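Workshop exercise sheet. Pairs work together: one partner reads the sequence aloud, the other fills in the structure field after running the prediction. Swap roles for the next sheet.
Pair: D.N. / O.F.
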Amino acid sequence: MLTPSLLLPSSELLKIYEVKDINDFIKSNLEDNNFSFINRILNCWIRENFNDLKKNNNILINIYYQIFNNIIDKKIFEKECKIFLNKWFKNKNIDTFFMDLGNDLEKYLSNKYDQKL
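Structure field:
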């Protein structure tokens, strides 16, 4: 039996999961939940804060480093992530239907460093 999809706005999903501070949410869910769950909530938060993050996305570097922390050196990660984030935001807009920064970043880093994250 299939469950019908729910078309909830990002803001409602953030309320359901009681996301008041994205950093606290990531820290408290990183060990207990898988990447897909965290990424889904993070993408909702990005959508809700898209215009501000497009101007200043440094907070995302720290968030994604927490998620991918054992993969590559922090300085390399910060440099690569900054380059990727600037390109990603340049090519996206708030109305983009498929917005999946976490998986896009993971694919970029996996391809660049020839390893699965």
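Discussion prompt: Residues 10-113 form one domain. What would you look at next?
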